[in-house]
Prior knowledge:
This protein is α/β, with parallel strands linked by helices. The chain has 2 domains: 2-10 and 376-491, Golgi alpha-mannosidase II (Immunoglobulin-like); 16-372, TIM Barrel, CATH 3.20.20. Helix content is 25%, strand content 29%. The protein has 11 helices and 23 strands. It has helices at residues 54-58, 106-115, 131-142, 148-155, 184-201, 219-228, 249-255, 257-277, 296-299, 315-330, 363-372, and strands at residues 2-15, 19-24, 64-67, 91-93, 98-100, 119-124, 166-169, 206-210, 234-242, 285-294, 335-340, 350-353, 356-359, 376-383, 386-389, 394-398, 400-406, 411-418, 425-430, 439-445, 465-470, 477-480, 484-491. The strands form 5 sheets. A 9-stranded mixed sheet has the order 21-20-23-18-17-14-1-19-22, covered by helices on one side. Strand 17 (400-406) and strand 18 (411-418) form a beta hairpin. The two termini are 28 Å apart.
Amino acid sequence: xxxxxxxxxxxxxxxxxxxxxxxxxxxxxxxxxxxxxxxxxxxxxxxxxxxxxxxxxxxxxxxxxxxxxxxxxxxxxxxxxxxxxxxxxxxxxxxxxxxxxxxxxxxxxxxxxxxxxxxxxxxxxxxxxxxxxxxxxxxxxxxxxxxxxxxxxxxxxxxxxxxxxxxxxxxxxxxxxxxxxxxxxxxxxxxxxxxxxxxxxxxxxxxxxxxxxxxxxxxxxxxxxxxxxxxxxxxxxxxxxxxxxxxxxxxxxxxxxxxxxxxxxxxxxxxxxxxxxxxxxxxxxxxxxxxxxxxxxxxxxxxxxxxxxxxxxxxxxxxxxxxxxxxxxxxxxxxxxxxxxxxxxxxxxxxxxxxxxxxxxxxxxxxxxxxxxxxxxxxxxxxxxxxxxxxxxxxxxxxxxxxxxxxxxxxxxxxxxxxxxxxxxxxxxxxxxxxxxxxxxxxxxxxxxxxxxxxxxxxxxxxxxxxxxxxxxxxxxxxxxxxxxxxxxxxxx
Length: 493
């Protein structure tokens, strides 16, 4: 199969948004609590952070972390997680019905984010939480006066404000499964008042509101966006695609990210209308604060111990996630903040159980892209044979999925996914009016078995291999094996 990727070096979509590549760090057993933070573990440092996990996280160069949830955030009461650790309670995560601690609270979370070079995104509890509780949390984190909650922070040993920039209003409040379920109109009314008051405490924050559910029509977003346009900065949705369902499971999974791409464009249209018609509308953009390949029967099951987490993701899942990352770059005019769900265990890019720690297959496309992408996104055109997934109402999807970025010095990074299950692919790079140096670098994620997994005893079964290439400076070509992902680095001549 022969494909082509065309772009013009000075036709740019824009810079990669600084908050585009983040992660969820839920307050669930084996994730934040007794996962990343586990003072009893032999590999924990003086802060209780496991040093067999943190280096893998650092290597993903995370832009931000969302915490404490997710669904677990709908029963999180922040005052239980500050002050002396020995005095903090052990409570019930009401969403899941499991016991959970508060050892990794607000100050520990923010300090760890800053330690790994990431920004914190705090999710307000709109389930069992109250308006006053939310505002107190913001004051505790961000105010520098002599008010009640700022003074409490000082009493806890934090003299200067944390200046947490990002705050989200609730989690999946549209869902029957969620604590605090409500209607679009009910959510908009409550979120409006929370956002108004929050801006009086700190007008500099970026507030994230819920744009609705990907699997349902746009009625929620059509209500919420115009109502909140003067008060918030982002509207978010969650994007998951499952292996189970009708049709060919291979193409169902690798096509999954395109449903999210459609929704991004739909939300961008609603935002454009609101900014035209709503008085005092703020410059809104789209966020995606949970996304991944997922099987809810596995990932949302009760996981009371670390041993419950087992190898899950395959190379096929990694290809789907690579396409999602490409989509984020292509749509970066509209999508400016995301957090994958999530960084550790429970759909994690990294998994850890009593047998060891390993990067899941989905870890590697993220690692390859964030470490080798360019600073600006280029507009690009693909010519390729295509496939369709009628049961998902997706047609004409090219087997080659791609995104292109460029650095100021002319280094070009082409992110390439061969989504064909069985056929190799030759990709020709075309850049009218420009040429390349003969030396190139290829980072390739491939395996003979598209369903290959990593695990605690075989952590590198699926991992990228880097090689030097010599290419035609006029029209470079690269060979991609079936079901593979590649990051090709070229240099403009």
